[in-house]
Structure formats: structure tokens, C-alpha cells
Specification:
5 strands; alpha+beta; 93 residues; single chain; Aminopeptidase
Length: 93
């Protein structure tokens, strides 16, 4: 299973592709350099496979690489950050 997490700025979301099929997304709003995660969704056929965690990690890694900040209004992203303290320094607000 090949996965790829990429930013889709036109749709304001990070998307995860599994073997070239869209498996889920993490929607966001922008406020300057801060990304406000609002909703994360994994398609039914890809649930219980760790896709959500892979998506969260990939999105947060990209934000971190850009030197951005995160506001986690999405409960899934907030819970992921709480379980992975290496991303705590990204959070604001």
C-alpha cells in the first residue's frame, strides 16, 4: 500500500492518496502562516487502516517544514497532537 499526503491549496485541504485513490482529507482555513484544521475525514473503504494517523502526520510534518503554526479545531487532529508531543510546538491558540 503506497500512501502520499499532499497539500491541495485550491481546496484548502491536505489529501491522502492510497495507491493513487483519494482516501481522505484534512480541511483547513488559513490565517497568515497559521493553518486552522477544521475537519478530517477518511473514506469508509479506508477506515481502520491507520490512514487518518498517516494523514495527520503527513500534514503536520509539512506545516512544520514550512515553519507554520497550527490551530487544531478538528477533534481528530487535536487528539493526534495530544498523543504525539513532538507536534505540540506547532500549536497556537
Amino acid at each position: 500500500m503506497n500512501t502520499l499526503v499532499e497539500d491541495n491549496p485550491a481546496r484548502r485541504r491536505f489529501e491522502i492518496l492510497v495507491d493513487d485513490s483519494l482516501a481522505g482529507f484534512a480541511a483547513y482555513q488559513l490565517r497568515g502562516e497559521t493553518i486552522i484544521f477544521t475537519h478530517t475525514e477518511v473514506s469508509p473503504g479506508f477506515r481502520d487502516m491507520g490512514i487518518g494517523g498517516t494523514l495527520a502526520r503527513g500534514a503536520l510534518d509539512q506545516v512544520q517544514a514550512r515553519g507554520g503554526r497550527v490551530i487544531a479545531r478538528c477533534p481528530f487532529i487535536a487528539a493526534f497532537i495530544a498523543r504525539h508531543p513532538e507536534y505540540a510546538d506547532l500549536t497556537t491558540g
